[in-house]
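testing teh design pipeline on a random one, pls ignore if ur not involved
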């Protein structure tokens, strides 16, 4: 979330990654508050889908890059570098990071998932 605007994933519509298979900027007319952030959507249907299933449509690991999390470091993902894997959205800090994840998602997810609870706790402090 942008600490100045309150927007999640820089205003991109999280449902568009699934519905349109590409990042699309959401519109101020279709906003929703969820988990302390403001989310924007392209249309009311995407907004409704997200509100019904934020755990599915929201980026995993709070939008942090899973490659870095697997190494024990938090690094914010960029909504322009993304991948839907296992019906979940992941954001990455770079194209190289996305490609490394795509090459071996199971290994990365195992390490990132095991380190995420501690890293998330550290972020909250």
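output:
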């Amino acid at each position: 979330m942008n600490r100045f605007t309150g927007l999640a994933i820089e205003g991109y519509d999280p449902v568009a990654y699934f519905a349109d298979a590409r990042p699309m900027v959401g519109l101020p007319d279709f906003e929703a508050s969820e988990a302390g952030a403001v989310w924007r959507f392209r249309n009311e249907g995407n907004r409704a889908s997200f509100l019904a299933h934020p755990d599915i449509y929201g980026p995993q690991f709070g939008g942090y890059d899973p490659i870095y999390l697997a190494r024990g470091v938090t690094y914010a993902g960029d909504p322009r570098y993304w991948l839907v894997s296992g019906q979940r959205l992941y954001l990455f800090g770079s194209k190289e990071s996305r490609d490394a994840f795509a090459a071996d998602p199971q290994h990365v997810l195992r390490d990132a998932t095991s380190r995420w609870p501690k890293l998330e706790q550290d972020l909250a402090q």
